[in-house]
Amino acid sequence: MDTRNEQMGPGGTITGSNLPYQPRQPPSYSGYQEPEEEAEPVRLWRSKRDEDISKREEVASSKKSDRISKAQRDIDDFYENYNSKKDKSIARTRKEAEEFLANRQDTSAGGTSWERIGKLVDLSGKGAKGGAAGGGKEKFRELLMDLRKDAKAPGASGY
What pLDDT is stored for residue 18 in this prediction? Predict the structure, then answer.
């Protein structure tokens, strides 16, 4: 297949002319032209659309401000509760520490070693700390109770 165009000269000029070939171009536009007047239905539709958009923006902005104020209140409540719980916990820990130190001083004086140990350990038999049944500590609890009652038990004489 032969793809040569014999009507074209060197440099893209048409044979018989010194100018390059330029296809027919539409007239060039100069400057800004005022748009034509919109049709009545289009104008009504645009105005209705603009009103709807503005209403939606108002609703969205009011919802956003409500959410922000609620979030700020929730954050303030959280920190208020957190700080009050923290203060109560600190006070309770201090009180427990003071009670422990006072109790420890009481247990270091008088009685056999097993009686002093019995004061430090919960032997009530209630709950997991007290050696209740099913807690796995009931035998240990019984052993401590027996040692506390026996004055001739090993280590009962003192330090």
Answer: 65
Residue among 58, 150, 158 at smallest CA distance from 116: 158
Integer Cα distance of 45 and 48 in angstroms:
5
| Helix residue ranges, H only, the chain | 40-107, 113-120, 138-149
Which of these, 136, 140, 138, lies nearest to 114 by C-alpha position? 140
Q: Which of 7-16, 22-31, 57-66, 96-105 has the lowest mean pLDDT?
A: 7-16
- The pTM of this model reads 0.41
Terminal Cα distance for the chain, rounded: 118
CA nearest to 127, candidates 117, 115, 141: 141
Residue type present at position 66: D
Residue 24 to residue 119: CA distance in whole angstroms? 111
| Cβ–Cβ under 8 Å, residues 132 and 126 | yes
Distance CA 123, CA 148 (A): 11
Residue 82 has pLDDT above 90, yes or no: yes
Which one, of 128, 126, 121, lies nearest residue 143 by Cα? 121
Phi, psi of 34 (to 5 degrees): -65, 130
Q: 55: burial class by Cβ within 10 Å (0-12, 13-18, 19+)?
A: exposed
